[in-house]
Amino acid sequence: MSRPDLPPTPPTRERSRRHSWVRVLIPVALILVWLAGASFGGPLFGKVDEVSSNDQTTYLPESADATKVQALLGEFNDSDAIPAIAVFTSDDELSATELDAISDAVAGAPDVEGVTDDVSPALPSEDGRAVQAFIPIDSDAELADTVSALGEELRSGMPDGVTVYITGPAGLSADLVAGFAGIDGLLLGVALLAVLVILVLVYRSLLLPLVVLSTSLFALCVALLVVWWLAKFEVLLLSGQTQGILFILVIGAATDYALLLVARFREELRVAQDKGTALLAAWKGSVEPIVASGGTVIAGLLCLLLSDLKSNSTLGPVAAIGIVFAMLSALTLLPSLLLLFGRAVFWPRRPRFEPEVVAAEHGMRTTGLWARLAGLIKRRPRVIWIVTTIVLLVGAAGITQLRADGVPQSDLVLGASEARDGQVALGEHFPGGSGSPVYVVVDEDRLQDAADVLLANDGVDGVSVTAADSPSGTAPVTEDGIAPIGAPGTPAPEPTTVDGEVLLQGTLTDAADSEEAASTVRELRSDLDDIDALVGGVTATSVDTNDASIHDRTLIIPVILVVIMLILMLLLRSILAPVLLILTTVLSFGTALGVSALVFNGIFDFPGADPAVPLFGFVFLVALGIDYNIFLMTRVREESKAHGTREGILRGLSITGGVITSAGLVLAATFAALSVIPILFLVQLAFIVAFGVLLDTFVVRSLLVPALTYDIGKAIWWPSKLWRKGED
């Protein structure tokens, strides 16, 4: 037993050796755990389509009329096939020979793998220059491959001068599938390459960017492993859109968290010779802002669970899972790699052990861009924040030009589209809604009442009822009732009934994804309300989706603001600072959305935007944009305790300026990578978030927030202890 009056026994060589082994074994063990997780998750990149769906109806709430009708269609038709419409057009009237060739081609369509036998006959248009045929595709078939093969088969026997299009729900869905095809390879490759280039330019190192990217990629692999199996067991719904956002969010967030830790590690290596001591100090200094930042993003994402749309509500937990693993990789895998490499990770610009130089700097950089900016803010804080606010308000005024009330399904995919061209051709020669009827489910005894409402609407070209004993599966309905089919005197077919209900189909005069068709569906729902009819179909699904998106936007945005504000209050132990940070972030979002609206309308000439675009843009910009304010203000609070608030603001800005700017560039680059996927929603989201992050990084966090807080002084910490006892 050692005597208390004697100095402690110095560590023995054996104890020191044991400590060294522990410092090696723990990092190696953590690296192996992450490597094992990545080895299981990596192969799933090419298998996401096995557990995902891009069918809009599956994302509607169960209470929506379109959802209820969709669930009943299979019972009436005994099939859940996806209809494709083959359109054959010619500049001149089709000859008898050409019509025979078209009929033969349509009759042979079931020979294509994935096409069912219930193919309609070839139906000529009134002008004689076009023919259409309805070709159902099995729901279990590979849709994009089947549509492509069907098009090739039909074109192979066509005479010169006859053009073939495959459109309708199957054709438009195949376009979406093809649009999302680049997510696993192209999107991931572009995002990683963009991050690698930025990291090499920032750190001028070869090894460090690879270490940081490994952290991000391992986090993504493990997150995908968890999400894939949750989707496999139908705990979560996964779509191409959600998948793309998950990839980008994990890479961007994990890299941002890694940059924060790396910056603190480099900082500590200048005052600590031992890499383990430096890493521990860096980890302790980084864990609070990383956890607070990740927690804020997770809280904002989980607010999406309040959404009526499953495409929104399922994104919340999927993306939150990604953020969890981004944080874990930055706080476990990255420190393990840094501990193994030590100063060598920064080669060829290794940080020197120079405590004397650091002491002479008094913990604050006195040269460089951020030191000069801190000096400018010290001299003119009020002018800077007022001018910056005015400029941002001018940009935000453009938000009135944003048209976020939905876009036609045919415009969801950018670039060339056979399905879109086919819709145009269809509208030129047939009623625009051919092949995508409005469905009405009504009690059998109210069949004629419902049919009369449909027939009286100018947006409906014709009405039929599902009838199993009719050769075509339907029978026309007129003002006099169900019309007989065949020779005069033939009795009219009996309508198919399911639990006392019948299924009417109305052919729309306008394209099913047009605003005019949407107006027709709304009118029909209003007129049919008295007879308790359900209205569904492609157009109704679009209407219900847009309505749900607008409801979600109105509900969720205020909830996110309140949740994030409460988190900031707990983190900063203040009320005034979080309120001001939220206001600056909202202003930044408004400016990003306003400028984006002007760019979408004036430069890209987009047809509009999905109602969910502002919601998603808000979630990512506010949740991620507040990250940089957290990185800045946690350091400002730390410095303010020792040097006073105004000095702490200048120190915090000069110290964090470089790392936060680098993080902003990385996040903007990763979101910009979404634009390589030719889906309108993702391209618009990519621009809004990328531009918004850069705006937040270089203007709001670098000028507005520091200048405003410097002008206010220690009152920014009201009502915390730092406000009462701190110094300006």
TrEMBL record:
Protein name: MMPL family transporter
Keyword Cytoplasm included in the entry's annotation: no
Bilayer topology term: Multi-pass membrane protein
UniProt xrefs under Pfam families: MMPL
SUPFAM superfamilies: Multidrug efflux transporter AcrB transmembrane domain
Organism annotation: Microbacterium algeriense
Listed transmembrane segments: 21-45, 177-203, 210-231, 243-265, 286-307, 319-342, 383-402, 555-572, 579-600, 612-632, 653-673, 679-700
Location relative to the cell: Cell membrane
PROSITE patterns tied to this protein: SSD
Similarity-based family: Belongs to the resistance-nodulation-cell division (RND) (TC 2.A.6) family. MmpL subfamily.
Sequence ranges assigned to domain SSD in this UniProt record: 582-710
UniProt keyword annotations, A-Z: Cell membrane, Membrane, Transmembrane, Transmembrane helix
